[in-house]
Write a structure and sequence with these properties.
With 264 residues, the protein is an alpha+beta fold. It has 6 helices and 11 strands.
């Protein structure tokens, strides 16, 4: 089974559609809803963790979708998170965003805001652990030396990533629809550091009228969605070697997550 080029993380890797498809795993769609006042960095990190928890190996076609309204009519604005090596990156980043009737949402606006930004930093922390060592003891009667195990407590310094929200006031330029939801765009270098060696770029947003389908919940406005390759069902004894979530015609469960096959 081929592995995509790029960073080989211990769990799941964010990659291009072509590279993920070359892995041999079949895709399924994961969609995670979120509310207002959210940080895109944490949303993407949580999305990748969910994909990994469900048995995914690779993730592609990741979109951030925000719901808004224009003159009382519902609209959806979406951006895509694209690996810089993708042949589509240049075209997607330079494409004309949105539609004519959506211009109000597409106007960049500069404001001074007070908000909490999700940040990660490397920290060194002491940790006390038990350590076993061996001490040589001489036995005069037998004139031999033997090693005797001993235990002692030692302090070691460990490096780890510490993440959290840091309140700050700053001047930022964003799109109007992002300000409406009090949404903070992601710091993609933090996502790249954990899930891919490629640099990640966010495409310009496209906004379009949204007509909810019958049965859609009106309270499912904002979401992160993407294609996940690999699932724990593929290793399940009763699933069969070729069975994957994508081959089912309805939602199924994979490690407790309700999953639906990708839409054509």
């Amino acid at each position: 089974m081929h592995k995509p080029q790029g960073y080989q993380a211990n769990g799941v890797t964010l990659t291009t559609r072509e590279a993920a498809a070359a892995s041999g795993f079949k895709p399924w769609k994961l969609s995670v809803a979120f509310g207002a006042k959210q940080d895109g960095t944490q949303l993407l990190l949580d999305f990748m963790k969910r994909a990994e928890a469900a048995g995914g190996h690779y993730v592609s076609d990741v979109h951030i979708v925000l719901a808004s309204d224009q003159d009382g009519e519902p609209v959806e604005c979406r951006t895509e998170i694209v690996p810089e090596s993708s042949v589509e990156t240049g075209r997607m980043l330079q494409s004309t965003p949105g539609r004519t009737e959506m211009r109000h949402h597409m106007v960049p606006v500069t404001k001074t805001v007070f908000e909490s930004q999700f940040q990660c930093q490397s920290v060194t922390e002491p940790r006390t652990v038990s350590e076993t060592y061996y001490e040589s003891q001489y036995d005069p009667s037998s004139k031999t030396t033997r090693s005797v195990p001993r235990t002692r407590m030692v302090t070691r310094f460990e490096h780890r990533q510490k993440c959290g929200h840091v309140p700050m006031m700053r001047t930022v330029t964003r799109f109007e629809y992002q300000f409406r939801s009090e949404y903070i765009p992601p710091r993609l270098e933090l996502v790249s550091r954990q899930y891919t060696r490629w640099s990640l770029k966010e495409t310009l947003p496209t906004c379009a009228p949204h007509s909810p389908r019958t049965g859609d919940s009106p309270a499912m406005p904002h979401r992160v969605e993407g294609e996940v390759y690999g699932c724990s069902l593929e290793q399940a004894p009763d699933a069969g070697s070729a069975t994957s979530v994508a081959e089912f015609g309805k939602a199924v469960s994979c490690k407790g997550y309700q999953l639906s096959p990708p839409q054509e």
